Amino acid sequence: MSKFGNLKSQDLIALAKEFGFWKIRQQGSSHAIFTNGEKIVVIPIHKGKTIGKGLAIKIINQIKTA
């Protein structure tokens, strides 16, 4: 089982907050935009659905390299 298999948007939002990001905008219920003052990361929000492995890895890499 992959460690990225069942990530939801809430998991990625929690990770972003741990790395010092905060929400600057949300467009409806589809995605939220976070920043740490230097970098912007967009996290899709779809209630009850998981984020695909490839997209989750890309978002995590964006958060970690900020």
Any overview of this molecule?
The structure is a single chain. With 66 residues, this protein is of the alpha+beta class. It has a single domain, classed as Hypothetical protein (Metal Transport, Frataxin, Chain A). It has 2 helices and 3 strands. It has helices at residues 9-18, 53-64; strands at residues 22-27, 31-35, 40-44. The protein has a 3-stranded antiparallel sheet. It is globular. The chain starts with 8 loop residues before the first helix and ends with a helix.
Keywords for this entry:
66 residues; 3 strands; alpha+beta; Metal Transport, Frataxin, Chain A; 3-stranded antiparallel β-sheet
Short overview:
With about 70 residues, the chain is an alpha+beta fold. It is built from two helices and three strands, in the order αβββα. It has one domain (about 10-65): Metal Transport, Frataxin, Chain A.
Query: For the record, what CATH class applies?
Result: Alpha Beta
Lateral strand order in the biggest sheet:
1-2-3
Helical residues, percent: 25-40%
Overall mean pLDDT stands at 87
The largest sheet, given as strand count, sense and whether it forms a barrel, is: 3 strands, antiparallel
* Count of separate DSSP helical elements: 2
The separation of the N and C termini measures: 28 Å
N-to-C series of helices and strands? HEEEH
Strand pairing plus helix content: what structural class?
alpha+beta
Instruction: Tell the overall outline.
Output: globular
| Beta-strand content | 15-25%
Number of strands: 3
Query: Can you tell me the number of structural domains?
Result: 1
Regarding quaternary structure, what we see is: single chain
Under the CATH scheme, the architecture is: 2-Layer Sandwich
- CATH H-level superfamily title: Hypothetical protein
Given as residue ranges, the uncertain stretches (5+ residues, pLDDT < 50) are none
